[in-house]
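Our preliminary data section would be incomplete without showing what the modeling component actually yields. Below, a chain of 248 amino acids is followed by its predicted structure, encoded as tokens that our downstream tools consume directly.
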Amino acid sequence: MNAIEIKNVTKKYKDFTLSDISFDVPEGKIVGLVGENGAGKTTLIRSIMGSCSYNSGSITVMGVDNTKDRAFSEVKQSVGIVLDEACLPVLKVKDMEPIFRAAYKNWNHEKYVQLIKEFELPLKKNIRQISRGQKMKLALALALSHNAKLLVLDEPTGGLDPLVRDEIVETLSKFAHEEGNSILFSSHIISDIQKICDYVAYIHHGKILFFEEKDAVMAKVKEKNFDNLEDYIIWCAKEVKKNESAVN
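Predicted structure:
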């Protein structure tokens, strides 16, 4: 079973369209969703999690249609979500556990305490007073403390210093190595995608340009004599722009 299945999803805004998106997140794998800012990554993730409706297509999460409210609410008990730091309320760090414990029936206090210690988070500080890296670590600790089998993360390493990014990427890698765990991980930091993902989905101007196993993509990187995945992605974007200009 795929952890997530996205089929022909379209979401229309006045000035932007998420167009005919299709790809899967296989169970037990990490899929990296890469694209520049404004490419549609956040819109797609919000559509997957049911916080943003879409015009056409279908999305299933852990085998359940995400438009079926009651069934999908149950599925979300097994999904850990890390969105933007702004989603965290203005509270002290220590006040977050009671909120999440009430929301998730499989809340694991011991796991949460372990992660808080591991991430060296200051329980007595207000969330407004801690760094962006600490906010992301807190969001990740909350997402990992209710026995989730699927993580959905929107730009979890964006704007972080290299040491904090490595710490978060390592934590995600450990989670993915546990049997049956899956991750959808969006980022415009392509080196992070290259480091841990099994599959790469590249979204550009609301369209999926490719969805392939990372090994197959890296073979193309080598074939084109690029040094890394980022150089190949930049080349792909330039080729698309060149073709669009030729058509227009």
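The chain has a mean pLDDT of 92. Residues 229-247 form the longest helix (19 residues). Preliminary results of this kind motivate Aim 1 of the renewal.
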